[in-house]
Amino acid sequence: MLLQQNWVSPHWAWQSLGKPFLLFVFLMLQTADLEARRGHQFVWKTGHWGRCIGDCGSGGLRSRAVWCTHAEGWTTFHANCDQQDKPDSQRRCFKVCDWHLELFEWEVSGWDRCGLAPGAEAGAEPCVTAQHGLQRRSVRCLQRPDRTAVSGDICEAVSPRPPAEQACLVPCPRDCVVSQFSGWSPCGTGCAGGLQHRSRAVLAPPLYGGAPCPRLAESRPCAAPACPLGDEQHSYSLRLGAWGECRLPPPKGAEPAAGTALDSGSESAERSPSAAAGAQPQHQGGHVEIGIQSRQGRCVRSDGKHADMSLCLQDAAPVTSRPCVMPKDCSTSEWSPWSPCRRSCGWGSPAPGMRSRHRAVRSLALGAGSPCPELEEREACTGGGKAPLQPCPRFAWRTSEWKACQVSLLLEQQDPQQQKQAGLCGGGIQTRVVYCAQIIVELGAQQLKEVTRPVDGKLCQGPAPATSQVCHLPCPAECAVSSWSPWGPCLPESCQHRHGGRGFRLRQRQVVVDPVGTLAGCPHLVEAIPCEDARCHEWLVSQGPCVTDRGQCGPGHRVLKAVCRSRKGEEVPHHLCSELPHAEVVACEVPCARDCVVSEWSPWSPCSHSCSSKNAEGTQSRSRAILALPAEGGKACPPEHALQEQRACNEHQCVHFFWEASPWSSCSQDVLGTALNATSSWSEETSCGVGIQTRKVFCRKSSSGHVTPKRCPESLRPEAVRPCLLPCRKDCVVTLFSEWTPCPTACQPGNATAVKQSRYRIILQDSANGGQACPDTLYEERECEDVPICPVYRWKSHRWSSCVLVPEPVRQEPCGQGLQSRAVTCLSEQGGSAAIGDCVRWAGVMPALVQECLIPCKDDCTFTPWSKFTACSSDCDTTRSRRRSLTGRSRKRDKCQNTEVYPQVETEPCPCEVFTSQPHGNWSDCIIRGAPSQPQLGMPAQGAARECGQGVRLRAIACYDRAGRLVEPSRCSSSGYIEEPCTVPCPFDCKLSDWSSWSPCSSSCGPGVRVRSKWLKEKPYNGGRPCPKLDLRNQVHEAVPCYSECNQYSWEVGPWSPCEINSEQNSLHCGEGIQRRRVRCVSTAEDHGVETVPSTLCNEAEVPETVQKCSLYCPSECAVSDWGQWSPCPQVCDPNIMQTRTRQVLRYPVSSKPCPELSQMKPCILNQNCFQYQYNLTGWSGCQLGANATCGHGERRRLLSCRRSDGATVSMQLCQQLHLEKPVPTSSRCVVGCAVDCQLSPWSAWSQCSHTCGAGGQMVRGRSVVLRAAGEGRPCPEQLTQHRSCPVKPCYSWLLGPWSPCTIQGGQCGDGLQVRNLTCVVHDASVSAASKPVENALCGELPSKESVLQLPCSVPCPGDCHLTQWSEWSSCELTCISGRSFETSGRQSRSRAFLVPSAESRDSCSGQDVETRPCSGGRCYEYVWQSSPWRDNVRTVWCQRSDGVNVTGGCPLRTKPAEVQHCSPACRKPFSYCTQRGVCGCERGYTEVMRSNGFLDYCVKVPGLEDKKADVKTIAGKNKPVNSKMHDIFKGWSIQPFNPDGKLKIWVYGVSAGGFLIIVFLIFTSYLMCKKTKQHQSPPPQQKPLTLAYDGDIDM
Fold first, then answer.
1. Nearest Cα to 1288, choosing from 980, 970, 981?
2. 926 in helix, strand or coil?
3. What does R_g of the chain's alpha carbons equal in angstroms?
């Protein structure tokens, strides 16, 4: 019941609770599924990282956007994504600022060797030439100053990351290449011959996955009969093992350690009593302990088995024990504490500094002990939380200001002897100081704070700025003024007064050229003459016509018309003038018909003098002439003197007055201006402002000195004070002092001279205008303080101990080779003891602590020590000797008397002091001696270095002693050179004379030219400056435009003479006649009136007439006046416009005869009586320089003239009156290039020799271009460096001899030593140098490693397997692809293999060694399969290198030709066989019958071959491969259409004719058959192809 209840309850529970439980589980699974789906549906997305922002250095931040997205792409809330997987939105970064750009750089290593690309090995295609490869290199970001690695992100901000991988080609795999086997080694004689061997060498290692090297050695048993039992022939060898460790000897009385004697049953030798107690501790020699080392010895039979020792020992037993130095390791002190972390500068990144620690040597290594370790240790460190570091300095070129322009520097290039001239101008050279400056960058800021502290120029990168340049110094131009104008009217100073009074007459001149660069300004421009009747306005009176009082003639009057005009000629109101002229009506008379007629007065002539003096007064005259004679009863003509009038003019004295001013003073501060500056709060720092200039002004008389100012017009008084700009004050600017030159950190000897250190600074700007002056001290020097003095230590060697032998139980007698030791201590300078480490550091190599010694045995020969060598004479052919003698019992032994074995006298040649020199190398360049003085910093050395002339050239010598050994060159010559004079030709420039003076202007009116010339004095040579282009007379000309005023010279005409009537033809003395006048060319010079000049200066084409016709009217005739002036033509000439002139009737005739015409007209015709005017410009002149300039800035000009329409040049006033527009400009600036010679720095000092010793060394010195050539200057020479060979100094080196064979002291095989000698030799370091031995002391310290002179080795005993000798190095081979080198260096190999002594040890002896090394100068090899001819379907195939060497390996196996020939399918037909071409053929006597597919069907016997033995030709074998035997049968059946002489055979013609007839027959038959057509023609039955084959029937 209980069971049932228990069963029912779960069942009920399941029925009641099962369904809700299932529903709950289902819901939970759905929720989990939704969560899982949501995890897959929502994912985080990120954007790109932004730029690094923040402070410079490692404190920057980089941000990116992070968002949550649905799988379908839309963005949702962050809460939908898993927060644990949320990516970072910010990360720290390194902010790169501008000043970081030069601090970080990518460092890339070289490319690794090209390796196969991943997946390339799995390629199915075979390799033909090369495979795809990949090569890699390391790329890292470095901080430049200390080359420490930093994050790559920093450099990526500066420049893109260089690629770390690149594709490359890998050659195809190549197997190991080995040579062919050598011949077999010979077999031994007798029975049991053993094995014989052969070997081969490795020529090239396997490359790029090729097959490894095959076995290099083979062995085979010799074919010798087996030995009968017991008759074996054996040889015996003593095998000695290697020396064991050095051990302390056993205590006295103890047994020796096992294995120290010979292993065998050999009897021990008799032991003699102990003579030297080697094991006593008191004989250890201070710090050195003498121990013992031993080795084993065995007797070995030739088959490798051990034998009794007595079979091997013939003479004395070998040494198996020897004394040795107990090993002792080098001991050092404890490490010192770490030094402080040294960081000289920081860059805002946690770059490490460096710290170090030291330890000292306490005791040196002895014997085989460990050598001393490193005594200093350095490691990177961080500064910790200390103050921030100063940023690291950067360096850049800086310059001072340009110095003043100096023309003399340029002129000295042309003529170094030229004297200093004043007033030089034009092109010049200016210099400045260029220096390397230190720049310090502030941390955390992007601004540079520059500190101009000069440092060594090597710290600055890139080319330095120029220290010189061409400049221009403006040429001083004197003020040029025009000529004086005529004196003006008498004017008062002020026109406020209407009435006359005191005034001045003025004349003026204008400034034509403004002054430049001169203290003296322009001369005075206005001159004045005091006058009394000064008026601003005056009446201009004109007379009207003469009106008769009654009738037509007789007395009358003229009415005066007065107009008030100003001095400018303008009409002004009458009240401005004073009272009217006195007479308003003037009496006159009109001639009657019978009266004499006189002309009007001519104008007053020019005044003869411009002023009046005691010796000369100015006068002017006028005249009138008789025009008509009177009749009887008429009014008579006036007398002759009444026809002339004269009056005084320019009556003022020849003195004039003008204002004169002194030069302006320099600009100075005005007191008032200073007060204004103070009240206006002007900046005091700039020191600039407004000042005043003053000058003195005084009135001066032309002929004497200063006069009272009243004599000069006050209104024209120049100003005596003017404002000016004060020049800015310039203080001297200098750099900071450079750092002190470093004092030596290494210690100095106690007797060394005091070391000094210095520093300097550079002037960047000179003071000016009262600024602070430059300091006097630019260079400072002081002695170094606290220079460490090298401590003095020395080794002290104590006495040698007694000779220590092997202990008694081991040795046989107390004699033989032993060791002795001594103590060596370190002493200070004062003699006290010091640490060993101090002597190791300061006293050099420690003296030997142990040396070998010899205790002679009773049978040994003993000698006295060698005596000193005998003295040498001065002769070089003498010898010197030394002696020794036998001691003790040795004197009685016969063997000791043998002087060949035991020499008692030694002789050697005396040292000879005779040397010979031989020239070596080439001659040097020609060297100009005389070192220039070192120029100041930044200043070129002008004229200091000679560049040409006499010099020397040098050739190095090698000095040899009498034995032909190289010695120091100073033994032969003090300088080490042969000297020979030489000459560097100096360049000579073209030299011209100075300019001649200017010629006069070629034109007297308008523009012309002035010319000056130079002529050749010296031609150029040796690369001097070339001459300008010369004319046929070797001259060069320069022409400049000039202008002559057209009114400067003019024709002056005198008055016409009275009309001359030819009285011989005319008794009345009236009518037609001629009159004359005087014409002359005059120049109106200043203050000298009219001066006659040559007529050529005036225009010859415009010379006035000197003779003209005239009329003297007869009595009672009509008399008329002279013609008046022609009326002017208009400005534009027009023939329709007429020009007129008139004359008046002066006397009417008595009769009714009419008067002549009173007016004339003519048209205005161009260039006849009408002219037009225009301005004309000449062409540009050449560039004109200042008087003292040779190049630089100049001016070119063109001249303006007034040209008439007929081409004549006329006065400028004619164009000015027409107010024509003037063309501009008439001058412009220009530049004449300066001829600048190349300027070089002085030669540097000679460099150190490129070789410390030997031949081929070179010394070099150089110079640099300070100023490059310009224009026609001498170019820079190509040679900026000079070389000379060094004197050949001897090279001393240790020369290692060849290794000796492996020697085993006392045995025949086993472990031994190879030794070689070390010799000090002298040579000249050339390739073909012959080395000659010299004293060891010349080579210095011996190599410390014993392995250099000793090498452990082994000699195989019979029965041992052993390695062969190394093969020779193979030839150098490059890795190539398609015949082109793939690598820069090649490879060469050598190998050795184990030789098997017996068949039993073949398994234990295996292995081989291959060594490969890089080499240069290799070549490409190709490997090609070669094959022999076929022989019975077999041939030999081998691989051959391109140089003809047969090898194994190297040729690709996939292209290997077949060695055995097989036919496919096989030749199973009767009488068939496989031919050499790989097809089936038939045997001799049978012919082939082939199938349509070319294979053999069967063989058919050739009929009649047995009887006739004739050749048969078959059809079946046509065009099929045939057996060579069959081919021999049918080779005579070939049909030849040509005879031996080249002509066609007759049968060819017959066959051709027959063939032609057959063709004609066939065509004819076809025609007939086709013509007979049938209407019902059935198709022909289908034919089967007919196959014919020869079945052997003769009837076929």
1. 970
2. coil
3. 65
- Compute the distance between CA of residue 595 and CA of residue 600 in angstroms, rounded to an integer: 15
Instruction: Tokens for 862, please give them.
Output: 């003993």
**Which tokens is 1253 given?**
């010793």
**DSSP symbol at 676:** H
> Amino acid identity of 1295?
L
514 CB contacts (<8 Å, ≥6 apart)? 477, 479, 522
197 bridge partner residues: 219
Q: Which one-letter DSSP state was computed for residue 768?
A: B
CA distance 410 to 430: 10
The region of weakest confidence among 4-8, 216-220, 387-391, 472-476 is 4-8
Query: Quick one: DSSP state of residue 149?
Result: E
Q: Are the C-beta atoms of 299 and 264 separated by less than 8 Å?
A: yes
Residue type, 126: P
pLDDT at 684: 39
- The rounded percent of the chain whose pLDDT value lies above 70 is 81
Give the three-state DSSP class for 1318: strand
Task: Quote the DSSP letter at residue 191.
Answer: S
End-to-end CA distance of the chain: 121
In a 10 Å sphere around its CB, with 0-12 CB exposed, 13-18 middle and 19+ buried, how is residue 824 labelled?
A: buried
User: Where is pLDDT greater, at 219 or 383?
Assistant: 219
873: tokens are 């004479």
CA angle 721, 722, 728 (to 5 degrees): 125
Q: How many CB atoms lie within 10 A of CB 138?
A: 10
User: How far apart, in Å, are the Cα atoms of 186 and each of 219, 439, 1307?
Assistant: 11, 83, 26
List the beta strands (DSSP E) in 867-1020. Answer: 879-883, 905-909, 916-920, 949-960, 966-967, 977-984, 991-992, 1006-1018
User: For residue 971, which phi and psi values (nearest 5 degrees)?
Assistant: -65, -30
E-assigned strands of 962-1086? 966-967, 977-984, 991-992, 1006-1018, 1035-1044, 1049-1053, 1071-1076, 1079-1084
Residue 705 tokens, joined: 């000195």
- Planar angle of CA 1428, 1433, 1438, nearest 5 degrees: 30
pLDDT tens readout for residues 1027-1078: 888 888 888 888 888 877 777 777 888 888 888 887 666 666 788 888 888 8
Residue 1440 has pLDDT above 90, yes or no: yes
Tell me if 706 sits within 8 A of 659, measured CB to CB. Answer: no
Helix (H) or strand (E) segment spanning residue 106: strand 104-108
CB atoms within 10 A of CB 1286: 24
pLDDT score recorded for residue 1140: 93
Mean per-residue pLDDT over the chain, rounded = 79
Question: Are 1196 and 1230 spatial neighbours (Cβ–Cβ below 8 Å)?
Answer: yes
> Does residue 392 have a pLDDT over 70?
no
For residue 447, give the nearest of 458, 439, 455 by alpha carbon. 439
Helix (H), strand (E) at residue 1567: helix 1546-1571
Cβ proximity of 963 and 1332 under 8 Å: yes
Kindly tell me the number of DSSP H helices and DSSP E strands found in the chain: 9, 100
Q: What is the pTM of this model?
A: 0.59
The residue type at 1396: V
Residue 1451 to residue 204: CA distance in whole angstroms: 12
Closest CA to 1126 of 1081, 1173, 1164, 1074: 1164
If one counts every other C-beta atom within 10 angstroms of the C-beta of residue 1342, the result is 13
Task: Give the separation between CA 1497 and CA 1516, rounded to whole angstroms.
Answer: 11
Which token pair is 907? 């002789």
- For residue 553, count other CB atoms closer than 10 A to its CB: 17
CA within 13 Å, CB half, 1083:
15
Question: How many residues in the chain?
Answer: 1596
Residue that has been written with the tokens 């001459």 in this structure:
1027
Instruction: Fill in the DSSP letter of residue 732.
Output: -
